[in-house]
Amino acid sequence: MTLTIWVDGWQMQCCGENFTPGDVVSWTLLEVDPEDYADVVGSERADEIDFREEHHGQDEGHVPTSVEVVPIVEVHCRYGVPPGATDKVNYPVPGTTVLVPVEKADGWAKARPDVSFAGYLVTARRVTDLQEGAAARSR
Length: 139
Fold this sequence. Notes:
The protein has helices at 9-15, 38-41, 43-46, 127-138, and strands at 2-8, 24-27, 29-31, 51-53, 65-77, 79-80, 91-92, 98-102, 116-126. The protein has 139 residues and is of the alpha+beta class. It starts with a strand and ends with a helix.
């Protein structure tokens, strides 16, 4: 069984460790409300997100989970102040998502016209799932 994990670009830039498909990583995974990501990745892809990776301000009791990275997709979107907003804070603009499959995540994506790098959608398998599958195949 695979998981889809959101990895914030800013967290990778701050203190994340590079990863590539095939790497086994140990991440603190927090459950998400997919709707929180709909404007960034689009509604269809947001519904696929199971967890987000977190290494800042982790809540007590969250144990890191070992997962094998499968594919990695960079997520870019446009940001802007919503019409009628009074706080002048930039938010993701729905419908502007650009998804780019990549072979390495290091937090520093190549600039793309009219959009900004937001983060990564990572498909992964729990390491325990891999070990159980290997054990079943060897029987």
